[in-house]
Task: structure prediction
Amino acid sequence: MIVSEELAKRLLAPYGLPVPPGEVALTPEAAAAVAQKLGGAAFVVKALIPAGGRGKAGGVKVCGSVEAVTEAAEALLGHDLLGHRVARVLVEKAMPIAREIYAGVVANSATDRLDLVVSFAGGMDIERAAQSDSQAVRQLGVEPGDVLPLHRVRQWLRQAKVADVDLEALARVLVTLYRAAADLDANLLEINPLAVLADGTLALLDCKLEIDDNGLSRQPELAEVYRQSLSPRELRARELGVSYVPLDGDIGVITSGAGLGMCTLDLLKQQGLAPANFLDTGGGISESLVKGALELILEPPQVRGAIINLYGGINRMLEAAKGIVAALQTISGKRPLVVKILGNQQEEAWAMLEAVPNVHVIRVVQTEAAVSKLAELLR
Ligand code: GDP
Ligand code: MN
Result:
């Protein structure tokens, strides 16, 4: 789940991290009222959209008066930016920036750790800096566990040999960011820019936060926000205990396990077929789960065929077959369904499914065979 910038900042502020004061506005009048309330002579109006690169696209406007805030909000609200309609802006007190640092806490799936990443060439050109100068981005791998000792970060930062930055203050902010990322089950927490202000203090001007969906049960406030962001179909998948990803194509896809899923999606693509969705059953396969899953993936009207690719292991695959039969009883239409099922009771499952019209059973291990069959049926 991607957490919006203002919610991310709201979650970080209680850790004592320096987040600029500001509020969300839905109209230009409300934006002006926020600026009025914040006081001071300079404000920033930011389009709240789930995309980076807003600065370069004109989605971040620094304003020198309340009137300018109104105009900036008028220019952003209701308009399209980077493929998103802007419905909300964040109005903040502008900060006098002396230098921009990039700070990130990134889940590293290869090592199952959270890594701390810092670049002193932060700001809007971070990608270019990372490409042109490998020294510009420094990464600190951290052993599993939530505590990152301050002295280690301090020592690490000293190697960077930067002037003009209070490394002690920076080390404290980084350790706190790290703790917050661990607390929030973040896959990614990115502060860019982490600004060094004219007086030498630090401020988190932008924040990108992605939270592991599995960690949401520990975050009741976020879990509610997350639920609201899901489509009805995604919600039903969650209730079933499976993950459902809507896609742009017209082929329904069910697999057991993400690895088999990726392989199936790749092979579909090779055959010129585009998935309409992707449903991963996870490890548990029962009649009711498979019935619900099949009903879900066949539901979008553009779906013209589907593939079920299950490797059940010790799961009883006859249950899966019963689920498929039960789902097809409630679904009308003659769309071809290719089923490749392997595991406990596979022969019984095949026999049951081969008796069902429009269902094509693949009795071999290779997913290629199932995908070619589907391509042939749809030709
Ligand atoms: P992004 O482009 O989507 O990552 O949006 P950011 O929130 O990072 O804003 C882009 C740029 O706007 C930053 O790199 C800053 O240079 C600038 N900016 C953001 N907030 C402030 C602020 O409070 N004061 C000033 N002067 N510039 C800001
Ligand atoms: Mn940014």
About this structure: The radius of gyration is 26 Å. The chain has three domains: 1-19+96-229, 21-94, 231-378. Residues 192, 206 surround manganese (II) ion (ligand 2) (CB under 6 Å). Residues 51 and 82 are 7 Å apart (CA to CA).
